[in-house]
Amino acid sequence: EWLDTLSTINPGEVTFTDYVEAGNMLAKELKHRGCDIVIALTHMRTPNDIRLAESVTGIDLILGGHDHVYENKKVNGINILKSGTEFRNFSLITVDFSQEPMAIEIERVDVTSKYDEEPELKERLSKFQGNKKGSGRNDLGKN
């Protein structure tokens, strides 16, 4: 239904496969090829991730986006994780394959100033900082 809202795309020129249909096909293929874990990387709203968890056999973990909130819930035995926005949070995911079924543990980590800057990472990211400095701070008009 969202394709109809896009003015630059003619829905008649796009092949659309329902994500549940695609999820079932891909999860089955990955398990057939011997994958130990199937992780769905999505960029859908939570209700669509819930539908995916309820409708697809073979997905072990859903890592979602789009909603810009931190959310961790289990639906139909499948963890659905959305790790927030603006790098305010991240998640440490531990998978224990020695259990049957495998155990997935998710720990939320809030990114705060209590963590020291990591010098090597700071240096690597510095080349991107110039693009943001001053962004949005230009006068658009004067009274």
From TrEMBL:
InterPro entries membership: 5_nucleotidase/apyrase, Metallo-depent_PP-like
Domain of life: Eukaryota
Annotated spans, Disordered: 123-143
GO terms under biological process: nucleotide catabolic process
Transmembrane segments: none
GO molecular function, one term: hydrolase activity
Name used for this protein in its record: AGAP007730PAlike
Source species of the chain: Caligus rogercresseyi
